[in-house]
Design goal:
Elements: H1 2-7, E1 29-34, E2 40-43, H2 51-57, E3 66-77, H3 79-85, E4 98-104, H4 109-117, E5 125-130, H5 134-159
Parallel strand pairs: 1-5
Antiparallel strand pairs: 1-2, 3-4, 3-5
Length: 161
């Protein structure tokens, strides 16, 4: 609403002596989670925020854990936007907003340009999927933490004789 007042002065109202004006700032935010450096709610400032900025604010994709092909944005869209996107309307009631899932592939160069042009809105959820091999990597890390001290202890014991 504040952006509308700033961009279009005709949206402004006149105030008279004795008028009481209460301004409540509800911070806009989006949530970024999963295979990023930090899972967090990204607060918006007065500036426009795009998908690339939101991911960067969360520390970016984790090299060994994230799947660059699996970046998703979830939001609720108006019925008009759902029709324009030509996706199924999943709203429960006529005229109700509908959940929409957007998929971005950052393995392709076009994905980076799209991320810089894709506006993030209040209450968007951004999810970065784990890489297919990350679960196997976690297993080997766990296995190494269990067997490492045993193997290291064996070497130390044999080295003292």
């Amino acid at each position: 609403m504040a952006a509308a007042l700033i961009s279009d002065p005709q949206e402004n109202i006149l105030a008279w002596p004795g008028d009481v004006i209460t301004v409540i700032q509800a911070p806009e935010k989006s949530s970024v989670f999963a295979a990023t450096s930090t899972n967090l709610q990204v607060p918006f400032g007065a500036e426009r925020r795009d998908l690339a900025q939101a991911i960067a604010k969360a520390g970016g994709l984790l090299d060994l854990r994230a799947d660059p092909e699996g970046v998703f944005l979830f939001r609720f869209e108006s019925p008009a936007a759902v029709r324009a996107l030509a996706v199924p309307d999943l709203g429960k009631e006529p005229g109700e907003s509908s959940p929409v899932l957007c998929h971005l592939n950052l393995r392709q160069v076009e994905g980076y340009f799209l991320a810089e042009r894709f506006p993030v809105q209040d209450n968007d959820l951004i999810y970065v999927a784990n890489a297919p091999m990350s679960e196997l990597q976690k297993f080997f890390t766990l296995l190494g933490s269990i067997t490492g001290p045993v193997i290291g202890g064996t070497v130390v014991l044999h080295g003292t004789h």
